[in-house]
Amino acid sequence: MSSEDKQTQGMNIFEVMLQAMVGVGGAIFFALILLNYAWQSPDGVKAWQIGVSIIFIIISGLLSIVWGDKFLEALGKFLNSSDGL
Fold this sequence. Notes:
mainly alpha; 4 helices; 85 residues
């Protein structure tokens, strides 16, 4: 089965859930890095910071379902870039 045949058949539910979990996992990793700085600050973690992190995680999961590998590659490049943060 070629990759073109696989794309025309569509993805099964396992592949969709796997992409969503990879997107959510990458977003959780990124959110924990950002929240780590907030935990170390004297003010601590604010409710809005947790809310923004949760929204980012949900959006990342949804985008990885919709755009699939293109989004996951972009997320991976962003997390791997040393000059991004």
